[in-house]
Amino acid sequence: LSAMGEPSMDPTLAADSTAQQDSLFSMTDVFLISLITGLFTYWFFFRKKKEEVPELPKMQTVAAPVRDSSFIEKMKKTGRNIVVFYGSQTGTAEEFANRLAKDAHRYGLRGMAADPEEYDLSDLSRLSEIDKSLAVFCMATYGEGDPTDNAQDFYDWLQEADADLSGLRFAVFGLGNKTYEHFNAMGKYVDKRLEELGAQRIFELGLGDDDGNLEEDFITWREQFWPAVCEHFGVEATGEESSIRQYELVVHTDVNMNKVYTGEMGRLKSYENQKPPFDAKNPFLAQVTENRKLNEGGERHLMHLELDISNSKIRYESGDHVAVYPANDSSLVNQIGEILGTDLDTVMSLNNLDEESNKKHPFPCPTSYRTALTYYLDITNPPRTNVLYELAQYASDSGEQERLRKMASSAAEGKELYLSWVVEARRNILAILQDMPSLRPPIDHLCELLPRLQARYYSIASSSKVHPNSIHICAVTVEYETKTGRLNKGVATSWLRSKVPGQQGSSSLVPMYVRKSQFRLPFKPSTPVIMIGPGTGIAPFLGFIQERAWLKQQGKEVGETVLYYGCRHEHEDYLYREELARFQKEGVLTQLNVAFSRDQAEKVYVQHLLKKNKENVWKLVNEGMAHIYVCGDARNMARDVQNTFYEIVSEFGNMSQPQAVDYVKKLMTKGRYSLDVWS
């Protein structure tokens, strides 16, 4: 407006052009008045429209969480004094939190497990309002030192908070894996940060290692944690070791089958009536359009699958992960039903006895035992000690009962027995029932005790620039013989292998969603990239290479694209050989270095090829500012590759070993050395 008004106010206009000025004024005034009137009218109606949105629903949406988000009010209302928060990606931290909350009654205390995503954690400063109060945090670390999805808001709050937590008493148990660079980063951070904010640690930080024996680490920490709590609050164990059921069984004899869950993760009938957005609680049913074997020989089955995401509104970037919800093998489910003499098609609900709990059921209910054991419960992993402890009461043979109780105890002999008989022998619940003929628990209690079947994550092997309506997976079928002579199969990979493209019904459908990742191509296409991914670790790099090829086609300047790939035998399991050769021929893949580990007497791995090309590697990193990406096995490969980079940096950068380590760590901090690894 002011720009339009300025000419009329110009003092340099000549006096003898008064008539022209008057004319200009009148025209301008008319125009301005019209414009202002128009704008005012538009604003008035637009504002009215906004105001006319009923305010009642708006008030409801704001008011609803206030009632639920205060864990303090909930604890006061239900007489709890211990709250156990969990940061959980795969359900283990949640399971540990539930066990600690359940333990509390043995000491005359009352506990509740809580998802930090559901509450306002700034209320921690008010916990001292409750007598003998304590906050425990079971925090898993995800990926490269990241918080789990449900703990992200809590982590953000901790980073920004300047709250006074001087009245808060706390303890932390972290769940991590030593093969990862940032071992237990989340547990360590929460422990340190709470202390910085003035909270009082009443027991030392526990660090669980999933690469070792996470269950034993937890039990060892827990058996020292509770005596420390007793000493702090001046309470004693009540001696109550009895099994306390958390859920009650309701069998539905006359039920409308339209109200029964058949495998959905969240909303009833969500698989029949799909509505975006799709996420962990609302997965998309993707059709498998391709499922082919990649390797030409050998005992293993390596496969390439393509999932159709047309009309799903799902977006993904190269480097993201696809999560799939598998189903357990029907023969395992049937055998459990037979051993326990149960009609698996019985429709039932397990209802939480604690009516105030946010978690009304352990899995979607009502449902059938068959559905629960197929889609909702983990029946293939060795059960944890708390499951054995609770099941022991159902063994009619005193020897078997004693054996189960011993394995669930904290005695050294019991821990050893659990490690050898359950963990190392990879006995799942079916194997335990088979090897303990007198152990016949009620199926509803077994369903209450077994952990939830978790989604499996795969690095996406495609680029959305090239395949916007399709997500590709590269995976190897897991199959091995246990010490007891049983053949154990990977749940997800065996299930994916059985998917038949183009068939009607569930045989070609995969419930899935996309999880965003930090594993990203450089912002500038001209930046060189060094990709290191043996075996199925090649997956995200197929997406990266496809994207670089697409960028090149768009006329963008694309930097050097270098791949270090490894497999066992050149003529057996060289994955995507033709595709890689084509990319190299087109000049997109500027270097293709392949290590065939078993084609000669001495094994050759990707790190050996890096050493062989060390001068070129250093030049790309130091002068070209290349980004380094490592994908695959964390336990050996990723560590060996990192050590190789230390050596290269030390040699060509004229640095000592500690300086070289610091140099590589700085690359990680700057996002120039990224890992997508698993163990």
UniProtKB/TrEMBL annotation:
Residues spanning the membrane: 24-45
Domain of life: Eukaryota
Gene3D superfamilies, sorted: 3.40.50.360, NADPH-cytochrome p450 Reductase, Chain A, domain 3, Nucleotide-binding domain of ferredoxin-NADP reductase (FNR) module, Translation factors
Flavodoxin-like domain location: 82-226
Top-tier EC class: oxidoreductase
GO cellular component annotations of the record: cytosol
Molecular functions (GO terms): flavin adenine dinucleotide binding; FMN binding; NADPH-hemoprotein reductase activity
UniProt-listed InterPro entries: CysJ-like_FAD-binding, FAD-bd_FR_type, Flavdoxin-like, Flavodoxin/NO_synth, Flavoprot_Pyr_Nucl_cyt_Rdtase, Flavoprotein-like_sf, FNR_nucleotide-bd, NADPH_Cyt_P450_Rdtase_alpha
EC number(s) recorded for this UniProt protein: 1.6.2.4
Cofactors (names): FMN; FAD
Family annotation (PANTHER family): NADPH--CYTOCHROME P450 REDUCTASE, NITRIC OXIDE SYNTHASE-RELATED
Protein known as: NADPH--hemoprotein reductase
